[in-house]
């Protein structure tokens, strides 16, 4: 029974010591502690398992043999040299993950997206071609340039937070469809997106190089291209209101400098069509979906799901 009690006690105190910083004094004393403040001359600490309002103790740095931090970093003070110890501590804590750093990334990515084609652009196309069976087509690929930053929210680098700016370009035939009805009819539209994203990531493995990511964001878009009706071409433009997108996926930290990413997301964006017109006082006009039945103007739906694959290069700046 005594042996069992001794084993439980040893296990209990071992867990406490592993969860706390430990001071090893030059006089042979070992102090499990919670370090409150450390200066060049004096170190302040609380004893473990004491109330929050309990006393704060202090010792001189010159009386300390070594400090074993709870994250595994070990600082040797047996030969006290302020500058050398400070450098040693910074390097040791950095290696153990306690020194925070800012990570800056820049990279490229490719996107494959499905646009929601159930919009009134399709109704407009069917009306002017007098065929209610016609559907829209287009190129689903696009590419993007990314610039971002992030930092670990804890010393163990389990949780990351940051943001990014993205410029995304679709090809000129993102929406492209042609038909012949009383002449050549054609639609050819593209988009340019400006995105601001925020992300939260949590590591999934013990190596901390695979992260589950959540990327909400806001975006605006500019539409370009042309619409041709009965051999007459109209130059199209349009700017979206601020909209949103949601994405989740994985970041794989291949090395300190190289990061691969995968995202699956949903975009929410509609753009009202405008085109140059000499008949309008403003110089611009909009097409009606069905001029005979209503006065609804054409709104292009660029919403839909997408998959993004990217590769980024990382730089780091130590914050403390």
Give your account of this protein's structure:
The chain is mostly beta strands. The protein has two domains: 2-96, Roll (SH3 type barrels), CATH 2.30.30; 101-318, Porin (Beta Barrel). It has three helices and 21 strands. It has helices spanning 2-18, 82-96, 120-129; strands at residues 21-25, 30-38, 42-47, 57-60, 64-68, 74-76, 101-115, 141-152, 159-169, 175-180, 184-203, 210-214, 217-229, 232-239, 243-253, 258-268, 270-272, 274-276, 284-285, 299-301, 304-318. It starts with a helix and ends with a strand.
The number of strands is: 21
Q: Main sheet, how many strands, which sense, barrel?
A: 13 strands, antiparallel
Q: Classify the secondary structure makeup into a structural class.
A: mainly beta
Looking at the structure, the CATH topology of the largest domain is Porin
Number of domains: 2
List keywords for this structure.
single chain, 320 residues, mainly beta, SH3 type barrels, Porin, 2 domains, 13-stranded antiparallel sheet, six-stranded antiparallel sheet, 3 helices, 13% helix, 53% strand, disordered N terminus
